[in-house]
Amino acid sequence: MTLDDPPGGGEGGGDGFSRVHPLSPFIRGGLVVIAVFGYVLSQQIDRIVGAAGPPAPGEGSTPLLIPAVIVALTVFGAVLLGLLSWWFTRYRLGESDLEMHSGAIMRQHRQVRYDRIQAVDLVRPLLARITGLSEVRVESAGGGDSHVSIAYLRNAEAEAVRARLVGLSAEAKGVAAPPVSSGAVEGTDLPPGPADSAAESGHPGSSTVPGQESPESEQLLKMPVERLVASVLLSWDTIVLAALLVLALALTFADLGVAIGGFLPLALITGMRSFIKLTRWYGLTVALRGETLTSQRGLTDTRHSSVPLHRVQALEIRQPVLWRRPGWWALKVNVAGARIASADGDSGESVLVPVATTAEVLHLLEAVTADPGTTAEVASLVHDTPEGFVGVPRAARWFHPFAHRRMGHLPGRRALLIRSGWLDRVLQVVPWGRIQSMALHQGPWARRLDLASVDFVSTVGPVRPDVKHLSTADAQGLAYLAAERASHARQRSGGPVGCDPTPDTVDWP
Question: Which residue ranges are recorded for the region named Disordered (predicted)?
């Protein structure tokens, strides 16, 4: 099979390579250039204003000419370096892998095999949105160094490349291609692109199979802006910021205003954290399309991400104490092989939903696990202590004086459920088939109290499942039960698609 006509942008030669958009290097460094230009302008504003008036006696135009020449040479050098970077940045959808060449002086060549691709997402920072460009971010199973970012392409070209990569990845793995929205994505302004014709033609790498219609997208969650703002206000960051403002006012009235400068960096950091959360999660929409969970979000930087359900390894819902009254939860997941990062250096977290109601969280859990039974077990743990729940003994209060009454685990039919936390209530869901390994450990004080803990190894992510300070007998029984059920889950085949069926092969870089 040959891919003679990759759906890329500019011509890259007769070897099948295509170049990214010529504005790409300027968009990647756009904010830096604006910041440097603003700093230089602020330093030279007095000279510029003075030069605009009549020259002083005995002075000519030479003092203004020198800075103008320096600025012109700097701009010319930046443009030249940007064009060199663009000329040497090329990509190709080859026979079996995606290739990316970059670097004018320090050459770099990256390859990602199609069967190693875990996710293909679209990212649109603010400057890219203004210019009508998108970044295609390819995440692979080889670790962070093997991820490839094609930045930037025109919106239609980015849609076509993404659809082609999804189809080629599915073809290389010998599975049905997950559906890819080839038209305008809900929540974004991406126009329809060449992916439509690729899908209809049945060309290798197309996002759908000829004669097979893409499943309809089922919207699972559309987060109201009011709830997002309220969740930011009901956070420790906001409380710290409010306390700093009150302290600053008190110092001002006490004629100690000079001390306010010491609190300014902390106040700025706290305020920026809240602002970033608002802009990052603005307009979040989560939908289920076939066997893939899709999400669109962002105010200044729009992101269109997809999570194949079979890549989900563990889930966690967390309820901070300030969210207890409105009944809100945050949902986090561990996704095999995923690392959220983009060309502009932004790295995110594996947070699926930053704030949702209890009903919405349970609905999302049922969609991800594809098991109403597990969802019912989670609901029982959220509202009560169900039959079969194994708590920690009274001796554990020496380690957890306030949380020991809530701590424990429930061995579910298809997943292990772990409950913990006092101020922040936490509930973790680990499908039996996703447990990679486990370790039973016992410190010196725990040994004297006849306590032991069981740690379960999952993929890299925010969810770190462990059951702390059980009785030694219960800990040993849990380790034996988990090993037995994990083995049975790995041998089981078929059933609904979700994060529970037979795990994927573990790949090592």
Answer: 178-218, 487-509
